[in-house]
Structures are given as C-alpha cells and as structure tokens.
Amino acid sequence: MTTDWMKDLPQAAEAYLEGRRLDEVECIIGDLPGIARGKAVPATKFARQPYFHLPDSIFFQTITGDWGEAAGEDGFIERDMILRPDMSTATAAPWTGDWTLQVIHDAYDRDNDPIPFSPRNVLKRVVQMYRDKGWEPVVAPEMEFYLVARNTDPAKEIQPMMGRSGRPAAARQAYSMTAVDEFGPVIDDIYDFAEAMGMEIDGITQEGGAGQLEINLRHGDPVKLADEVFYFKRLIREAALRHDCFATFMAKPIADEPGSAMHVHHSVMDRSKKQNLFVGPQGGETDMFFHFIGGLQRHLPAAIAVLAPYVNSYRRYVREQAAPINLSWGRDNRTTGIRVPISSPEARRVENRLAGMDCNPYLGIAASLACGYLGMTQEIRPDKQQRGDAYNGEPDIPQVMGQALDLFDESDDLRHMLGGEFCRVYSIVKRLEYEEYLQVISPWEREHLLLNV
Predict the structure, then answer these.
(1) What whole-number distance in Å separates Cα of residue 309 and Cα of residue 366?
(2) How far apart are alpha carbons 60 and 66 in whole angstroms?
(3) Which of 122, 302, 340, 348 could link 278 by a cystine bridge, Cβ 3.0 to 4.6 Å?
(4) Burial of 311 (0-12, 13-18, 19+ CB in 10 A)
(5) Cα–Cα distance between 102 and 230 in angstroms, integer?
(6) Taking every annotated instance into account, which residue ranges of this chain make up the domain GS catalytic (predicted)?
C-alpha cells in the first residue's frame, strides 16, 4: 500500500513497513498524566482523513478516571478538539500483532489555535519563548524505572521480578553487568523495539534499586525528546509484559528502595552562532550559565507540582536515598538538586535532578526549561556552590502535594511561561486527585492508630 502521506514517513517507519502492507494507524496524544489517548483506525481511513476529533475532556480527567471541574465558566460540555498528525513522529508499534504505526497528534480548537492545556502544546509554547530570544534549548533526559513482579492486587506490596537466574532481583547492585544480564530477555526486546521505532538508546545501566534500570537518551530538541520518553514508556511496558513482569515508572514503588527520576540535562544554544551560551570565549562559565541555575533555584519550588505530580512522588525526596532534598547546586555532586556534570566546555550543561519519572515528559521538560528561562531573563544569581554533602543541609522543596500546589498557584511567573489556562486546569485536576487520596486510609494508619490513639 503506497499513498502520498506515506512518502513522507520517517526512515525508520519506511524500513519497518518495507515489503509489508500497513494494517492500522494508532492516532495518539498524551493527556495530563502522559497516558496515550486516541483512536486506532484502519490505514485506508487514516489516508483519507487529515484530522480526527476527541473531546477536550480528556485533559480534565484524573489518574483515577474521575473528572475535574476544569471546563470553565461554560460548564462541562466536552467540546471536540481537532487533532492533526505530526508525521515526523510516525513510528512502528512493533509489539502489535499486525503491521501498525503510531502517530502523535497535536490538538487545536475550531479557530485553529493550539489547545492550551495539551501538554505537547505547553512544551512548544516554552520552546518558542526561547526561540523568540534567538536561543535554542537542548535537553537530554534520563529515564529510571523498575521491572517488578506482576502485581494484580493493589493491597499487596510490589515485589522485585524474578531474574534469569530464578532469584528475585537484588538491590544495591548499581552498574552491575551481572544484574543487567538478569533482565536480558526484557532488555533485548527494549533494544529491538527501539530499533524498529528508530529511537537511539545512549545506554542502559542497573541502578541501585532491586530491578531498577536507567536508559539514557541522546541530547536534542526538547519536543522530540519528550516524544521519545512518551513512546519509551509504552515500549518498555510492552517489553516487560512479554516476559511476565511489569515495568513501573512510579516515583517510589518499593519502600526502602531508591526512587525513579527523570533527570534532565539542559544547555542553551545561540541560534545564529550555533554556540553554547553557557560557554565564554575562553571556555569559561558565562553569566547566562549562572542565571540558568539561579532560575532553577528560585522557581523550581513552584514547579515541583509538575515535576512531582502525585502524592507518591514526594516519597522519593528522602535523605540519603539518591534523590535531592533541596535546591543546592554543585559540580559533579549527586547529592545536590542541581548538578553540573563534568564535561568539555562545548558540552557544558545543567542537570535538574528534581523531576520524578512519574511526571509527564512534556510538562516536566517544559517546567524545567521555564525556570531556567526565567533565570536568564531575570538575571538571577544562584546561591553559593555546594561543595560538600547536600544531605547535611535542610530541605527547601515542598514535602507534600498540597503545599506544592499552593506554590504553583501563587507563581505568576510560571503561569506566564506555561499558560494561564493550562495552569488553571492542571491545578484543578491535581487538587481533585489529592482530595481522592486523602479519602484512602493506609495500612500504616490502621496498624499504628487503630488501637493506640
């Protein structure tokens, strides 16, 4: 089957379909949590339609499936959005039983304006603000996740998966090749799926948790990299299910084990000169470099509600558990929330270690870039560099979801960057999720309070 739209497919998608008949196209868009929503349509129908419709209410839905009162003054009437494919994102869905492509779509209203609370549009908005200044933001995400035993009973604790040896995955085996080999069949499928989809993995390592892995992606355009993280979450889950285990991107799935982060490395290029703005003429660190760090320090507290979007997210920020507890910055210091890795001057970058792997990649990258942009435009100087163990300092980030949302709602600067309508909808949905959580009584409360208070 060959049609005009297929002539513009990315090379990997063309290679995947070579000599084969395309059966189906998955038309998808990421909602607030980053779940793929959309429709699966026959390839012949996709070739005939330039767009399709979904109700805007998909962005008002909580992670539990409830609905936030986010529709605004017109009420909950579920207007149809126009979803148009971005064919540069067309890629294989290699875990399906037939020959299927998946394509990410962008959301517009009837006036052809971007839907302001669509996460991909939020990131595009922030990137455009950089470009309006003559800057080009560059990011490189790191994805941490756990492979765990199948868990079909939410009342039971999550357990590590069984490895190739027949023993449960062991903790405290960071960077162990033997530990990576334990998950060999799953990792092989991850590589195979990624290759079929045309996505390059920079490396896979064993992290400190039992069954915890990290995948690094090569640096590049923020929207493209967010698309890849969005796709990778689907890919990794499907690879795990093939081998009778689950992949989870929860920030803290197992008690007493490290949490899972989405560390984001940032640099900013001069669009005309193609030079890293963090590097001076003699290779030194520029004012913009320090201003970017200062922006993260000042504005990240308000952005934590986006980087840590669930009550579970805050269980990750624990002293001595491989996650930051404050916004100190340092060079080659993994105890700080903001780290400057060792690099050549040309590769100088700033790493934000606050974001959890449970955040929406579009929103997490958008919020982080927004904080750095505000630092550069407001010329914010950072605090003094942290030269020792940052865990010896005091926490200075929100500790609970409610506090984080209060700071988010109070930040006019962040609202300007991300868009007021997005911030309104996001806050309503997240506060409803928080209220739903507060109605659940935990085993800890029953164990320690039932007969003792």
Answers:
(1) 14
(2) 9
(3) 348
(4) middle
(5) 12
(6) 119-453
For residues 142 and 357, give the distance between their C-alpha atoms in angstroms, rounded to a whole number: 9
What's the pLDDT at 2? 45
Q: What angle do CA 354, 337, 345 make, to 5 degrees?
A: 110
Read off the pLDDT of residues 17-38 as tens digits, 9 standing for 90 and up. Answer: 988 999 999 999 999 999 999 9
Identify whether the C-beta of residue 16 lies closer than 8 Å to the C-beta of residue 92.
yes
Q: How far apart are CA 263 and CA 258, in angstroms?
A: 14
3-state secondary structure of 445: helix
pLDDT of residue 320: 77
β-pairing, 350-352 vs 91-92, is unpaired
Q: Classify 121 as helix, strand or coil.
A: helix
Mean pLDDT of the chain: 91
- Tokens 């304006």 map to which residue? 113
Q: How far apart are CA 8 and CA 123, in angstroms?
A: 24
Contact 163, 146 (CB under 8 A): no
Q: What distances in angstroms separate CA 354 from CA 200, 288, 327, one per listed residue?
A: 24, 21, 9
Whole-structure pTM value: 0.94
- Please report, for residues 257, 312, 396, 416, the alpha-carbon distance to residue 315 in angstroms, rounded to integers and kept in the order given: 11, 6, 15, 29
Q: How far apart are the first and last CA of the chain?
A: 70
CA contacts within 13 A on the Cβ side of 104? 23
**For residues 30 and 118, what is the distance between their CA atoms, to the nearest angstrom?**
8
Measuring CA to CA, which residue among 191, 118, 62 is closest to residue 363? 118
Residue whose entry in the numeric block shows the structure tokens 């129908």: 45
Q: Are strands 264-270 and 245-248 parallel, antiparallel or unpaired?
A: unpaired
Q: Is 211 within 8 Å of 247 (Cβ atoms)?
A: no
Cα–Cα distance, 46 to 69 (Å, whole number)? 33
Cα torsion 296, 264, 30, 48: sign: positive
